[in-house]
Write a structure and sequence with these properties.
Elements: H1 2-8, H2 10-13, H3 23-38, H4 44-62, H5 67-75
Amino acid sequence: MERLYEAVCLFFCDFSVPFDNNLAERDLRHAKVKQKVSGCFRTDEGAKLFAKFNSYLSTAKKRGCTSLRALELLFQGTPMLALGGATE
């Protein structure tokens, strides 16, 4: 039981450990808010493009690349994911 307690409460001592492991829910929340604000996506293709775009930016952030830098690389034709991770 002691070992489990240490693992669960690690975020108290190590501030690099997130409070929860809920990145997937946070990634989906943006799409749900977008859907609520505009009522719906107009087309399936629009919803797919929105999901791809947000997935790319979310992955860039998780790999330590800023959104602006990820977009710069994307529009230059060398997406961050093709480079294998964060740049600069």
